[in-house]
Amino acid sequence: MTSGIPQGRRTGGLVSAVLSLAAFLALWAIVAALVAEPITMPGPMKVGTVLMDELASGRLISHTGITLLRVIAAFVVAMAIGVALGLVLGRSRTTDTWVNPWLVILVNMPALVVTVLCYIWIGLNEVAAVAAVVINKVPLVTVMVREGARALRPDLDDMARIFRMTPSARLRHVVLPQMAPYIAGAARAGLSLIWKIVLVVEFLGRSSGVGFQIHLNFSMFRVAHILAYAFAFILVMLVIEYLILRPLERHAGRWRQDGH
User: How many helices (H) and strands (E) are present in the chain, helices listed first?
Assistant: First the structure.
């Protein structure tokens, strides 16, 4: 089977991405030169130097790794709860009617408020940090998965009943293959939200992680260090996005293309 994306298109997309990034760096350097305030507006070279220094000292790897572990923990828990709840709400109109007001409240609850409340109620610890991120993430996953569950094909349900498939077999062979693109989409959208919330959580109440380093450098007005840590973690998230999530999303939706 050949890839659904021609080689020439992939190469052209990579070249465009590189050129776009180069244009961004050039624009940044020009603005920094025009402002001529290296403390408040450091250029790419200054930020790159700081990033290399932090990498050599080991601080960058240590704090980035801690933040990544928090992101992974919150992501796994939130996806598990959100997918299960979304499936139930999408398949049961009565349950959805009762739970939907809660979802509306949680979706519109500011992440800052949830984080502060978790720290007050649970304490300044890892459980509170992860719980705050999970509470902010679950409603988004639930809503996206619920819409996918509502779009399930009824003829496939009828087929499952005719062949008297067990609930576990129906879930594995009928429901989840149809839900895979929605779950993959929720994972991508959720991950982009989770890491930002994790930084807020660390900024407010942790003594380690990228968010803590941003807080520390903010108090000392070190803009170059703030940007260095921010760009370092953005790079980590981009690697996860392009090397893990996007291939999984394409694989999840492949059955629809094969079916045609």
Answer: 13, 0
Other CB atoms within 10 Å distance of the CB of residue 123: 11
Tell me the H-state helices in 36-172. 44-57, 59-91, 93-108, 111-122, 126-150, 154-162, 167-170
Residue in 118, 174, 111 with CA at minimum distance from that of residue 138: 111
Token readout for 71 is 């992101």
In a domain, 206, yes or no: yes
d(CA 103, CA 116): 20
DSSP classification of residue 208: S
Domain CATH for 108: 1.10.3720.10
Contacts of 189 (CB under 8 A, 6+ apart): 140, 144
Number of structural domains, the chain? 1
The pTM assigned to this predicted structure is 0.80
User: What string of pLDDT tens digits covers the 260 residues of the chain?
Assistant: 444 555 556 666 667 778 888 898 899 889 888 887 878 889 889 999 999 999 999 899 999 999 999 999 999 999 999 999 998 898 888 988 999 999 889 888 888 899 999 999 998 899 999 999 999 989 989 998 898 887 766 666 656 666 666 666 666 666 667 777 788 888 888 888 888 899 999 998 888 899 999 999 998 889 999 999 998 988 888 888 778 777 776 766 665 555 44
Residue 224 lies in a domain: yes
Range of the domain at 73: 47-259
Domain assignment of residue 61, yes or no = yes
Grouping H, G, I as helix, E, B as strand and the rest as coil, residue 202 is: helix
Residue 225 lies in a domain: yes
End-to-end Cα separation, the chain, in angstroms: 14
With tokens 């349950």, the residue in question is 95
